[in-house]
Fold this sequence. Notes:
The chain is α+β, with helices and mostly antiparallel strands and 260 residues long. 28% of the residues lie in helices and 20% in strands.
Amino acid sequence: MPEGHTIHRLARDHLRDLRGESLTVTSPQGRAVQAATVLDGARIEAIDGYGKHLLYRWSTGDTLHVHLGLYGRFIRQRTPAEPPRGLKRLRLAGDRWTTDLSGPTACELFDPDAEERLLARLGPDPLRADADPDRFLFNLSRRRIPIGAALLDQSVIAGIGNVYRAEILHVLAIDPARPARELSEAQARAVWDTAARMLADGVRQGRIVTQAKPPGAKRLARGEALHVYRRHACATCGGPVTVGEMASRRLFSCVVCQQG
DNA sequence: AGGGTATGGTAAT
DNA sequence: TTACCCTACCCTC
């Protein structure tokens, strides 16, 4: 689920569903007791997404940091909600909606300087209006690691995960093994622009879709939405998709389209 | 019941 | 590099 598009969509949805109401905050699993105690009865005033991180700004002045990791998810239901089932780290119950968080890597209150430390190790996030593409170009220009590894490095660019990595490099016909700093400036800009466009599409659609929808089609089936990720044949040329490993994740690329 | 897998990341070695 | 953490789901036995 969670690459950058998921995070920014959650920020938007949670703001819509929960902002301004006094929330009942509980820690059903018993693993976020301190945060729940501090925040219970308070209101969410704003929510920021940075890459794959969510920052909830509360009326108490506190910031709650959530990182979903690989398995984390939010489940929404109408208030009053069923008693929590399974392992729920946090429950936010408002007048209309109740949201449960399960499986996050992080769910914690930030110290005063924790946010600064977090932002210092994140590259620019193409989904943010205040993002600076030149910082991304600069970051790429000084990395000798492959571009396929650089795109997963959150200090180079924030918000890209394993699906977007494969899809971005594919639509630009870039060999993932190519050293990041050897990309031309035009190519690096194209990577940024493509990332920004794909992520924004992901926010709108609530899932990752990188293929154009044929006229008349309602919704692309799963397996038709992507070009190479988890496919055997490339959606563009029909050629074989190879599966390798880069940055400890499975990397899919088209032998034909993405030759070095 | 148990194993493998997943769109992520950190800390120790 | 490796070990480890987090949860749900799917497959096989």
